[in-house]
Amino acid sequence: MSKEQRARVDAMMRQPRPEGPRPVEAIRAGFKALMAQMIVPDGIRTTQTALGDRPALHVEPDSGQRAGTILYFHGGGWVFGSPETALSLTGHLVVKTGFGAYSPDYRLAPEHPFPAAIEDTLGAYRALLDRGEDPSAIAFAGDSAGGGLAVTTCLAARDAGLPLPAAVVTFSAGLDATRTGRSMDAKEGIDPIFTRESVEHTGAMYLAGADPHQPLLSPAVLADLTGFPPMLIQVGTNEILLDDSTRLAARAHAAGVDVILDITADVPHVFQSFAGVLDEADQALDRAALFLTQHVHVPDTAAASAG
Question: Which residue is catalytic, options 82, 88, 103, 144?
């Protein structure tokens, strides 16, 4: 670990911002500029494609792809962000696992509030299944709001009677629209990025008046995770959303799900984005890649047909 690295990242994320709620256009532009500073690894190629009814970014390793697919959901509070803003994360997972990835460009609030994003991510998963991909060869992953979508898309797939993916990986997931985690207030000021006010501002755009007390909006406190695939839940201690992850892990454990809760000290929200700058980011992505390669398996069709 490097205290100096962590201090530099913390200072970078504490750059002065305009006071008060910002218009959505300014939030989107600011996030795009921030994420453009992240390191996208060499050794990948990207292609614009479509999954279901939505555009998607296909990310592949240059060195030849092993069988297996990561369905990656980008972060951004369900209001901002895109497959391109998450490319440092998607790209590193692709390089480290050898799998290909698809990142759907799901609809954003406030133009398209809940449940539009889940409809789009579920549609992307259906599209993979419809083209013949085996669910045991697919993993869901995502950061922040996208981490929440990795969980809620799994819930929606189960409710729709679809087979579930092989694994779920979340980075600093947003999992509680009721905002009842103790870390929401305990980590105020320690979190260099978010305040309760800021997440409630964008959260209200996604809710658009919907009751937050439902599993697809607050899975950390309300979801029944019975039957879920193995989960890796990564989060940092310097986050107001810390308890979103810890409570989801507890629910998963209580439901008999294989779950790893992976907490890194003194790092901010989606610290994995700082791969190449922060040692803890590279190490966390190594652990995520190992988890994915352990759980994503392509059926041996020749052996199956012979049997």
Answer: 144
Q: Which residue type occupies 33? A: A
Cβ within 8 Å of residue 30, ≥6 positions away: 17, 22
Superfamily of domain 3-297: Alpha/Beta hydrolase fold, catalytic domain (3.40.50.1820)
pLDDT score of 306 more than 70 = no
The amino acid at 74: H
Known active-site residue 269: yes
Residue with tokens 């105020």: 188
**Contact between residue 262 and residue 284 where contact means Cβ atoms under 8 Å apart:** yes
82 is catalytic: no
- Considering the entire predicted model, what is its pTM? 0.96
Q: Of 142, 7, 160, which is closest to residue 81 (Cα–Cα)?
A: 142
Tell me, yes or no, if 25 is annotated catalytic: no
Per the CB < 8 A criterion, the answer to whether 278 and 5 are in contact is yes
Q: Exactly one of 239, 245, 273, 295 is catalytic; which is it? A: 239
pLDDT in tens, 219-278: 999 999 999 999 999 999 999 999 999 999 999 999 999 999 999 999 999 999 999 999
Catalytic residue among 119, 269, 273, 280: 269
pLDDT in tens, 2-17: 899 999 999 989 987 7
The residues spanned by each domain of the chain are 3-297
Query: Of 135, 36, 127, whose CA–CA distance to 86 is shortest?
Result: 36
